[in-house]
Amino acid sequence: MSRMTLEQLRIFIAVAERQHVTSAALALGMSQSAASAAIAALENHYDIKLFHRIGRGIALTEGGERFLVDARAVLARAADAEAALSELGSLKRGHLRIHASQTVAGYWLPRHLMDFRNTFPGISLTLNVGNTAQVAGAVESGAADLGFVEGTVDGQLLEVEMVGRDSMLVVVGADHPWAGRGAISPADLRESAWVLREQGSGTRALFEAALQNSGISTAELNIVLELPSNEAVRAAVETGDAASALSASVVAAGLEAGLLSAVKFALPERALSGITHRQRKSRAAEAFLAIARGGRPLHPSARK
User: Fold this and answer.
1) Is the domain of 174 the same as that of 290?
2) Whole-angstrom distance, CA of residue 115 vs CA of residue 59
3) Separation CA 14–CA 8 (nearest Å)
4) Is 46 a domain residue?
5) At a CB cut-off of 8 Å and minimum separation 6, what does 294 contact?
6) Are residues 19 and 107 in the same domain?
7) How far apart are CA 197 and CA 233, in angstroms?
8) Pairs from 42-45 (Cβ < 8 Å, separation ≥ 24)
9) Alpha-carbon gap, residue 268 to 212, rounded angstroms
10) Checking CA distances to 65, which of 33, 148, 206, 268 falls within 20 to 30 Å?
């Protein structure tokens, strides 16, 4: 025998509690000879007598009595570990690490976080916010189980699926010359100062792609500020004489309050995407994606 097994501990405890090998074997659904062999293997391997043989009966030795306490503790811990695995597998408990880009985290994700929390209250959630490149990197490195972005993601180890859509608008402050003006042409874009998100953000990448399709290079624009958050860009545009391109969700309140004015310049819709690692599968992440895409994962109380 190379190592003590849980089965040997179960047999030892059953024999010790009944003080009878045959009765223990019957209770365990095994032969008397197999039960006797398991006890003998323990005694021989560790060179200790666990039972006194008294006529046709048996009784625990002092060493056997001490070992019984430890054996019961080990089986209890094994039962706890088995229950923990079962709960993790059925999403009754666990931890899900989500990283999301700013637009997604601030405007699209919160309702799905609450929906998941209500469905799986035993799963704790942590959320980290970054730009699209940072989110993709976190999923690829294993720092995140699940990512959500609004930009294009490349990576051989990443699986990307669309979970929603978002539209973008060119906006200016209420005092900007373009406020209330009709459609502008690509050439008009060179006339204004611009405040944009930083390189690496999905918002910036989509705007740059739209400019390229219109025959305009970002280098041709008068970019006066690059800021690392949607809210900072929006605030700068509301109080200044610059233009920007932001998600419709981000600028909705400013448009309603009259602090911003939307400019008619066509920008494409963009996909909101969920990102997972091809080789690191998480049942909790799959359940969250099901909620995000509009499906309903099976509630843990209904799992068998």
Assistant:
1) no
2) 58
3) 10
4) yes
5) none
6) no
7) 7
8) 42/1, 42/4, 42/8, 42/12, 44/1, 45/1, 45/4
9) 12
10) 33
Q: Which candidate, 81, 82, 92, places its Cα nearest to that of 284?
A: 92
Tokens of 74: 């080990």
Within this chain, do residues 182 and 263 fall inside the same structural domain, yes or no? Answer: yes
Q: Give the model confidence (pLDDT) of 179-218 as tens digits.
A: 988 889 999 999 999 999 999 888 898 899 999 998 998 8
CB–CB of 144/115 below 8 Å? no
Bridge partners (DSSP) listed for residue 172: 243, 261
Q: Mark the ranges of the chain whose per-residue pLDDT is less than 50.
A: 298-304
Q: Where is the domain boundary, 89, 110, 141?
A: 89
**Do 153 and 278 lie in a common domain?**
yes
Owning domain of residue 105:
94-165+271-302
**Do 176 and 132 share a structural domain?**
no
Determine contact, residues 137/153, Cβ cutoff 8 Å: no
Instruction: Write 56-64 long-range contacts (CB < 8 A, 24+).
Output: 57/19, 57/20, 58/15, 58/19, 58/20, 58/21, 59/19, 60/16, 60/19, 64/16
- The whole-angstrom separation of Cα 181 and Cα 162 is 34
CATH number, residue 112: 3.40.190.10
Q: Return d(Cα 144, Cα 156) in angstroms, integer.
A: 17
Residues 160, 285 within the same domain: yes
> Mean pLDDT of all residues in the chain?
89
Residue type at 124?
S
Per the structure, the count of domains in the chain is: 3
Q: 0.70 cut: is pTM over it?
A: no
User: Does 112 share its domain with 231?
Assistant: no
116 and 60 within one domain: no
